[in-house]
Amino acid sequence: MTKYTEPKYRTIHEAEAGELEILKEKVTGSLWKPAFHIHPEHGLLNDPNGLAYFNGAFHVFYQWFPFGAYHGMKHWAHVTSPNLVDWERLPTALAPTEDYESHGAYSGASMEVDGKLYLYYTGNIKYSAEDRSANQCLAIMEKDGQVRKYDHNPIIEGVPAGYTGHVRDPKVFHKGNMYYMLLGAQREDRTGAIIVYESKDALNWSFKGELRLDLDLPDSCYMLECPDYFDINGQDVLIVSPQGLEPKQHDYLNLYNVIYALGKLDIENLTFDVTSYQELDKGFDFYAPQSFEGSKKERLLFGWAGMAEVDYPTDREDWAHCMTLPRELDIVNGLLVQKPATELKQLRSESHSGSMTLDSGSTGLHSGFHSFELETTMESRGAEVFGLELFASETEGLVLAFDRSSQTVSLNRENFHASFDKENDLVRSAELNIGDSVKVQAFVDRSIAEIFINDGEVVFTTRVFPDNQSTGVKLFTDTELTCSYTIHQLKSTNSL
């Protein structure tokens, strides 16, 4: 069958003379380029891929289209760090040059096998705008950092009977004496599923079946992307990115969303018995996260701080999106909590601490910096509505509001001059048990805020694109409120 052609399906090797240099220069001068978040040199970044701590270094690969801020031929870009803070950009790890990946090297994960890092990914194949297939492929990274594609790719050709060409995003793990691969899939009736392959050697794979997953997802859910499985202290966790969920009161308000489930995986019998599940991040811009084991055997996670089918203000500069900061995962009181990785403390330079009591209204805590970390505890003493404003100026501000009467926290990004092309509403919210005090830790980096509430019980990830002078931090309340805080100025330590 003839394969589909379109100008956006070209690789970095087909760039015209000087084209990439022009794109890179355009991004260099961007007001909104992050100081310490992983972001693309130019073009579009999306899903994190192949995350690993391997041979004494952290490796982050990510989906990358080099030529503009839109979804085209996906490559795997590659950055590495000794400490999760100082990142170095390496040559492109995967460019889709082979027939089995003719329309992109799509997302996947990694696993160390016999002292080498196996990089599993999906080779995307398109025959028309609507007709596609998928191959599962392998690349191998040696300890010297060299990446080569497996000679016998694809390791899984095509898709099993009963599923459409939307089968992708391999997650591979070892259990017992077998290797297993989870894949996001779409059934022929256009509903989402996770399917499973197994292998004795991590090279030769056979179809095992579909994972029975009791998540009570609606028939409108047409795809389950980016499955991720791990355990924390014997508790099994499954993270998945469903497409087609219907919005509920505080849940699933983005076009695409992420949920985690706690339960028990019986891989031999293809079941995951769910004890609880909920949305992972309550912000505007979070999708396709992937976890991995860190240098101390802790469970770390990166997510894509972006959202598909939304035009961002940086699109006109020919770049889009960034990664979240690395987060450490834990299970506390039956919840999967996310905290900033401890290594991020290395970013701190100058710090300023203080405390104040505010009777009502609002006041500035700090004039702020373009990139900073805020740690604060607010003791509400009966206040019904109180909170913080980040990226604050006379005309702009990102408003984090706690409402005691409804026991909710909300994030509002409507007050910015640089807007998005379309919004699914401008407010995100979450239920929260608001007691006598609330703890907030927020990282602000030019065009992204990551907000961790009560030690990661609720997390908001959001992109905003403020004016250059919008760097303030404000406190507001309707009744007496006491606030203690520390603001750390954060240094730019990467060369990205």
Would you give an account of this structure?
With 496 residues, the chain is mainly β. It has two domains: 12-340, Glycosyl hydrolase domain, family 43 (Tachylectin-2, Chain A, 5 Propeller), CATH 2.115.10.20; 344-490, Sandwich (Jelly Rolls), CATH 2.60.120. 2% of the residues lie in helices and 52% in strands. It is built from one helix and 36 strands. The strands form seven sheets. A six-stranded antiparallel sheet has the order 25-36-27-32-33-34, with no helix packed on it. It is globular.
Proportion of helical residues: under 10%
Distance between the termini: 41 Å
Given helix and strand content, the structural type is mainly beta
Total domains, how many? 2
Strands side by side in the biggest sheet? 25-36-27-32-33-34
The top-level CATH class of the largest domain is Mainly Beta
Number of strands: 36
Largest sheet: 6 strands, antiparallel
Architecture per CATH nomenclature, i.e. the level-2 architecture of the largest domain: 5 Propeller
Shape: globular
Mean pLDDT: 96
Tell me the number of helical segments per DSSP (H or I, 4 or more residues long).
1
Low-confidence stretches: none
Nearest-angstrom radius of gyration?
22 Å
Under CATH, the topology of the largest domain is which? Tachylectin-2, Chain A
Record the SSE blueprint.
Elements: H1 19-28, E1 43-54, E2 57-65, E3 75-81, E4 88-94, E5 105-106, E6 110-113, E7 116-126, E8 132-141, E9 147-149, E10 163-175, E11 178-187, E12 192-199, E13 206-210, E14 212-213, E15 223-232, E16 235-243, E17 259-266, E18 271-279, E19 287-293, E20 299-305, E21 319-320, E22 322-323, E23 327-332, E24 335-340, E25 348-358, E26 361-366, E27 371-379, E28 385-392, E29 397-403, E30 408-415, E31 427-431, E32 437-445, E33 448-453, E34 458-463, E35 472-477, E36 481-490
Parallel strand pairs: 1-21, 14-18
Antiparallel strand pairs: 1-2, 2-3, 3-4, 5-7, 6-7, 7-8, 8-9, 10-11, 11-12, 12-13, 15-16, 16-17, 17-18, 19-20, 20-22, 20-23, 23-24, 25-36, 26-35, 27-32, 27-36, 28-29, 28-35, 29-30, 30-31, 32-33, 33-34
